[in-house]
Design a protein that fits this description.
Mean pLDDT: 87
Strand content: under 5%
Largest sheet: none
Helix content: over 70%
Low-confidence stretches: none
Order of helices and strands: HHHHHHHHHHHHHH
Oligomer: single chain
Number of domains: 1
Distance between the termini: 14 Å
Length: 297
């Protein structure tokens, strides 16, 4: 638990304070080359061309990470293992800074710049609700998914999630069709428990009834990995909070123009980012409580 907390804090701090360094480290060209190498050497009809082919791509790098994780766990009171875990989480975090991507949309000087910035989060032409959902999806992909699997499996868990995300999204064109389908299915199942926990903590730090209702209405109470209850819960919570803010301004006698001016441009995205941060802080607070409880006991 302590390693998870320390690694998460370091990953966040370095991602914000050393953005150039983070961008230079978080590269996965080696994984692209690995997929191309496998694809060039696997004959037609081999496992590589089926839905389980992604396992072949993930097995070797995950085995290396797992062996290093095991070998470094005990020497020198576990300090090498701690440093390795921090490095692994830092590499798997992101790779882009979510705050910067959202700020680029909100602070864009014109519509063209805003559309260009928004394309880093969502498909071109996405409206405000779609962008809000994209913020929560990006937070899951860049932060929470890596953190959750790191908490469960250590460095190998973080590597599993990040490589599965690369294979299913960035590198899908390098895979045979059935293999790419299998990679997407794997990522969907890796995302499912993460989305459930994110929705739970969003309810705790936001409007519980609103989040719970959206979660249930969009399949959160089932076992469908394709159900987008996370995006629906995020949109509903943001909509509720903005309505409350507008009502507070109205109760204070503010005019409609003053309310728009005070809330600023794209208030939906600002509120979505605020909710994402509150959710992450709540996750880290729970981890910190477990660490403290372990020390006390």
């Amino acid at each position: 638990m302590f390693m998870t907390l320390a690694a998460a804090v370091v990953a966040l701090a370095l991602g914000h304070l050393a953005q150039g360094f983070a961008a230079s480290v978080r590269r996965h060209g080696w994984f692209d080359d690995w997929l191309r190498w496998l694809g060039a050497r696997m004959p037609s009809g081999a496992t590589w061309h089926g839905r389980w082919g992604i396992a072949l791509a993930l097995a070797a790098p995950l085995l290396v990470v797992a062996l290093l994780q095991w070998a470094l766990d005990t020497p020198l009171y576990g300090v090498p293992g701690l440093l390795f875990g921090i490095g692994a989480l830092f590499y798997c975090w992101g790779p882009r800074d979510l705050d910067l991507d959202v700020d680029a949309i909100v602070d864009a000087p014109d519509a063209a710049s805003r559309a260009a910035a928004a394309s880093r989060l969502a498909p071109p032409g996405s409206d405000a609700p779609a962008l809000v959902a994209a913020v929560f999806h990006a937070a899951r992909r860049r932060w929470f998914g890596v953190l959750f699997w790191f908490l469960l499996l250590g460095a190998s868990g973080a590597a599993l999630y990040r490589l599965a995300a690369f294979a299913a999204e960035d590198d899908a064109a390098l895979l045979p069709a059935d293999n790419a389908t299998g990679a997407k299915r794997l990522l969907a199942w890796l995302d499912w428990p993460v989305s459930q926990l994110m929705a739970l903590f969003m309810a705790l730090v936001g409007d519980f009834d609103t989040v719970f209702s959206a979660w249930k209405q969009n399949g959160g109470d089932g076992f469908d990995p394709d159900a987008d209850f996370l995006g629906a819960a995020g949109r509903a919570s943001v909509r509720s909070e903005l309505a409350d803010d507008a009502q507070d301004y109205a109760d204070a006698g503010e005019s409609a123009d003053a309310i728009v001016r005070d809330l600023g441009p794209m208030p939906e995205l600002r509120d979505a980012m605020s909710l994402v941060w509150r959710t992450l802080v709540a996750w880290l607070a729970v981890i910190a409580l477990f660490v403290i409880a372990g020390w006390v006991s």
